[in-house]
């Protein structure tokens, strides 16, 4: 008998329950966004160059087609994610920290993101899109981690809804900040508010 061809072999494997695709719907409190591995380059002056990634590149995890590999001590499997509803507020957790048996590592990659008009419609399936008339979000809070993972500090950027101005808070210190400066930080946790039809953009950026 001839050796099975790849397509035939795949079809045979899919007959096994462990290889069959399963769909599970689960609730979420926040969305974890994975950063690519950060190679640190040095320029001609031996200064470190911090890599950057667009927000929409790491949001691709939720487009329903991007596969992410997960490994445990006894099995490997692939997962695809897609959103089934968009709540009034969304929390993004940018996965900067990885922990192994010895220490915690921090990924310093800068995420490039707009602070207004982030449309998440493409991360919904076509049938779910019809039920969502509002899919655009504006940033209202941005938590930043500075420094080393074990001894760093936190800052938060908060939008004052009434005036549309941004403020930076650290401990008891409050200062105003330009919106474009927010995007240069090592964002860790972000809170986004869904824009309703009758709302106007007061953020000026």
UniProtKB/TrEMBL annotation:
The reaction(s) this protein catalyses: Thiol-dependent hydrolysis of ester, thioester, amide, peptide and isopeptide bonds formed by the C-terminal Gly of ubiquitin (a 76-residue protein attached to proteins as an intracellular targeting signal)
Presence of the UniProt keyword Hydrolase in the record: yes
Family annotation (InterPro entries): Papain-like_cys_pep_sf, Peptidase_C19_UCH, Ub_carboxyl-term_hydrolase, USP
Gene: Usp39_1
Protein name: ubiquitinyl hydrolase 1
GO BP term, example: protein deubiquitination
GO molecular function: cysteine-type deubiquitinase activity
Domain USP: 1-195
UniProt-listed Enzyme Commission number(s): 3.4.19.12
Taxonomic superkingdom: Eukaryota
Gene3D superfamilies attached to this UniProt entry: Cysteine proteinases
Annotated keywords: Hydrolase
Top-level enzyme category: hydrolase
